[in-house]
DNA sequence: CCACCTTACTTGACAATGTCATCTGAAATG
DNA sequence: CATTTCAGATGACATTGTCAAGTAAGGTGG
């Protein structure tokens, strides 16, 4: 392997290791020593690829934002499903991160990841979501609806994550949310379903 | 001062010191040594009052939740203002914490504070909010509306905090949120105002 | 093929921090 | 006043982020 290749491989291994450790044991489990060990290198190696630990964590957040942006773009391009379902899919994608990788979700919205790079990546996601909303309510109203929808989806995810939506009565569905905000109707009859 | 009095005073001083350090310098500034120093005691003193650092931080979160619960209860009891305004006030109180004490807000919803005690305190807030909602939409519909309203308010606060609602077009107001969700109408005409 | 340079990575070291065992002095008790 | 109790102080230790110095393998010129 050429030198540049080994370096790139190591960098990927470091990111992968950090991501796995975050998912498995939360933020406290992500020590540079543990990351290095899992990546097959030693504790100081990350400094050859990232300015410091925060930059490594920020990279995890940026990757997550980029994945979300890609998924939103994919959804929008999929003309086989109705616009409404595409929008709901985008919101659910955000919530899915909170469910599948709660620590990563927390990282995406936490201070260490609030560097300009991460905010920029998040803004790209916002743009994609805005487009999804525009497909439903039109360009003119998209910003107002979009902000409410994104905030609400993020809120549902975060509250659920913090254990504040556990009680049966507090379950909330994204479909309900979209229905109420976009169609301007009261919540549908019957049981409120679990989001998803 | 009797021994119990000095102990209680020290405990209060520790909580106050931790709170101030959190507000001033974020989570990293809250070291037990700094807390002790500001409280006029030494680094090991907190262990006489809290099981460990996390328990001290949890106490900060619990206090914040309790303040919110009190404010919601006060609002609900204030019959001089219309029910709608009371509900908006409750939601705004949550957002106000995010604006005035962003680090505290993050702590309230972060893992270290997700202990049973903190969740219980948060549940009391939820109950108060639920009552505020019930005063507007009735007992039957309160849970569904309440979950959406609380999640949305939390989402607005969190997104704003993370710098994801900075763009002019993304500003969102609580009044708009309540209006859309409760009255089932499209967002009002004209500029979307800043929440608050 | 060899001497030299470049660089990804390792290792030793250090300061900061959370935590605990031990100690101390003053309050409480009889 | 003697003794007990307990809030708080202090020394010590492991862990961690960080960096300077060292090392060895990849790359380059002759």
* Main β sheet profile of chain A: none
Strand content of chain A: under 5%
What CATH architecture label of the largest domain in chain A applies? Orthogonal Bundle
- Helix/strand-derived category of chain A reads mainly alpha
CATH fold-level label of the largest domain in chain A: Tetracycline Repressor, domain 2
pLDDT averaged over residues of chain A: 90
CATH superfamily grouping of the largest domain in chain A? Tetracycline Repressor, domain 2
SSE sequence of chain A, one letter per element? HHHHHHHH
Straight-line distance between termini of chain A:
45 Å
The greatest inter-chain interface is formed by:
A-B, 47 and 47 residues
Quaternary organisation: homodimer
Q: Please, how many domains of chain A?
A: 2
User: Uncertain spans of chain A, ≥5 residues at pLDDT below 50?
Assistant: 189-196
């Amino acid at each position: 392997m050429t030198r540049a290749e080994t370096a790139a491989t190591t960098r990927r291994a470091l990111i992968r290791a950090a991501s796995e450790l975050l998912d498995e044991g939360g933020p406290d489990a992500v020590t540079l020593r543990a990351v290095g060990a899992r990546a097959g290198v030693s504790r100081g190696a990350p400094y050859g690829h990232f300015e410091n630990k925060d930059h490594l964590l920020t990279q995890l957040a940026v990757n997550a934002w980029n994945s979300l942006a890609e998924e939103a773009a994919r959804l929008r391009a999929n003309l086989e499903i109705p616009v409404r379902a595409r929008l709901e899919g985008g919101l659910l994608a955000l919530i899915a991160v909170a469910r599948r990788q709660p620590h990563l979700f927390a990282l995406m919205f936490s201070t260490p990841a609030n560097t300009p790079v991460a905010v920029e990546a998040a803004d790209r996601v916002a743009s994609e979501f805005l487009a999804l909303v525009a497909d439903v309510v039109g360009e003119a109203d998209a910003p107002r609806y979009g902000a409410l929808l994104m905030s609400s989806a993020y809120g549902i995810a975060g509250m659920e994550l913090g254990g504040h939506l556990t009680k049966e009565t507090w379950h909330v569905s994204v479909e309900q949310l979209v229905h109420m905000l976009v169609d301007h109707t009261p919540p549908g009859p019957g049981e409120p379903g679990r989001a998803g």
